């Protein structure tokens, strides 16, 4: 089962969400859990009751973080201290020793619905002055006195079909927005996430019926779906997913899936599966590695301070050295690993470098990958250039079908691209990313 990471820190807004005068405080997640537990329950309660309540409190906070409940609404915090909306948090309060001991033991455990991966929205109330469909805090005391275990108490309130995930790893809380806008030609795991979300949103909104084919390519149908979404929700309909559009999609998706409700539709492991790895490092192989190696090779062509890596799709010592040199130049931690920040920096620097080339200073400028994936249906000058390489390659390699230079990525172009991929040992996607572009250029010259 997929396991979510426990955030190292959590940012708490000390007031109601719309109280702009209230400050934010960022505290270690474990300290937050101790503070909430000490503020909401009594340390003299039976231990089974304490544990059941702390499981619910930790999971509630993790649900807020997982769904980015507040960031998706434009706020700069993870949770509030208002019990009207969230959990009680009192900055600087005394922590009870019994509570502290229990939290140390289970702060990285959380509740899920069986078959689903997101932390359950563990709604709860005190059970005296307020009641709700979830856990009753005072009710847990009676159940504990009857001999029920913490898990049995949680089952009593949330149903028999729950599990507890134990010892989840801790990590920095990284916002879901990738950091750079996604647009036609982008290829990343974030694109597949958006396609999945838009497809689900379309079931609830008649004006948005995209039925997008899940892939990591930001293609024309994806662009059209984003424009439709932006129109429906009064955003600038430019077909580009910047931060505002990203979080609006996430907010609507959370709503139609009811991820922040007790009766959530839930997320299965299949729905959260990935095609692309979160990080690339020694031992990684494949198209992602080839793409990074291509970018670094071009950057090294223009900057002799960067050692060029290999281009075989294997993350070897030469690739590590090239990544480290690039990270040092960019002021990034020089760990030789390509995570989100390094990936974004490499892509950004590649675009800057390619766009800065004077057209009259380099005869082979067109050989450099345009920095965006080309997919069937696209049009434009980049497609014309690709078709030119495919025509030259077809003259040298009879396996490649001949194409006309039309500027339209049509069926013959797709067939020729697949032939190039077949000859070069690349996946037969019919889509032109950096490795396929490089292969077409090479085959046009040999």
Could you describe the 3D structure shown?
The chain has 446 residues and is mainly alpha-helical. The chain has a 3-stranded mixed β-sheet. A two-stranded parallel sheet has the order 1-9.
Please give the number of β-strands.
9
Written as H for each helix and E for each strand, in order along the chain, the element string is: EEEHHEHEEEHHEEHHHHHHHHH
Strand-residue fraction? Answer: 5-15%
Helicity, as a percent range: 40-55%
Computed over alpha carbons, the radius of gyration is: 26 Å
Question: Which regions are unreliable across 5 or more consecutive residues at pLDDT < 50?
Answer: none
What can be said about the biggest beta sheet? Answer: 3 strands, mixed
Strand order of the largest sheet: 3-2-4
**Cα end-to-end separation:** 48 Å
In round numbers, the mean pLDDT is 95
Structural class: mainly alpha
Count the DSSP helices.
Answer: 14
Inertia-based shape: elongated
């Amino acid at each position: 089962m997929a396991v979510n990471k426990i955030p190292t820190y959590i940012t708490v807004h000390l007031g109601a969400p719309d109280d702009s005068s209230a400050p934010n405080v960022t505290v270690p997640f474990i300290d937050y859990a101790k503070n909430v537990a000490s503020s909401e329950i009594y340390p003299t309660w039976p231990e089974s009751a304490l544990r059941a309540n702390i499981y619910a409190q930790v999971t509630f906070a993790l649900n807020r973080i997982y769904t980015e409940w507040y960031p998706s609404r434009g706020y700069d915090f993870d949770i509030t201290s208002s019990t009207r909306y969230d959990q009680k948090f009192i900055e600087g309060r005394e922590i009870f020793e019994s509570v502290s001991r229990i939290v140390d033991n289970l702060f990285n455990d959380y509740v899920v619905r069986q078959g689903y991966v997101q932390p359950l929205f563990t709604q709860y109330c005190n059970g005296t002055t307020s009641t709700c469909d979830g856990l009753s805090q005072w009710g847990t005391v009676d159940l504990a006195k009857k001999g029920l275990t913490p898990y049995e108490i949680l089952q009593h309130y949330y149903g028999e079909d729950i599990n507890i995930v134990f010892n989840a790893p801790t990590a920095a809380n990284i916002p879901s927005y990738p950091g750079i806008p996604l647009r036609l030609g982008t290829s990343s795991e974030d694109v597949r996430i958006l396609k999945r979300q838009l497809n689900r949103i379309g079931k609830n909104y008649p004006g948005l019926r995209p039925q997008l084919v899940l892939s990591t390519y930001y293609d024309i149908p994806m662009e059209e779906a984003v424009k439709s979404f932006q129109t429906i929700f009064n955003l600038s309909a430019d077909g580009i997913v910047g931060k505002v559009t990203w979080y609006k999609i996430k907010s609507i998706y959370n709503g139609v899936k009811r991820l922040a409700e007790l009766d959530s539709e839930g997320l299965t492991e299949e729905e959260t599966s990935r095609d692309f790895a979160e990080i690339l490092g020694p031992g990684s192989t494949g198209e992602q590695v080839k793409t990074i190696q291509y970018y670094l090779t071009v950057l090294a062509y223009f900057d002799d301070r960067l050692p060029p890596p290999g281009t075989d799709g294997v993350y070897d010592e030469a690739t590590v050295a090239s990544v480290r040199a690039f990270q040092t130049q960019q002021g990034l931690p020089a760990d030789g690993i390509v995570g989100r920040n390094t990936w974004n920096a490499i892509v950004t620097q590649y675009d800057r470098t390619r766009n800065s080339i004077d057209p009259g200073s380099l005869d082979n400028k067109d050989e450099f990958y345009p920095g965006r994936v080309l997919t069937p249906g696209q049009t434009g000058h980049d497609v014309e250039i690709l078709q030119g390489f495919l025509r030259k390659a077809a003259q040298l390699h009879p396996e490649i079908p001949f194409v006309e230079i039309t500027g339209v990525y049509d069926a013959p172009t797709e067939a020729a691209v697949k032939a190039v991929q077949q000859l070069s040992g690349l996946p037969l996607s019919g889509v032109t990313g950096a490795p396929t572009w490089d292969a077409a250029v090479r085959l046009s010259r040999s």
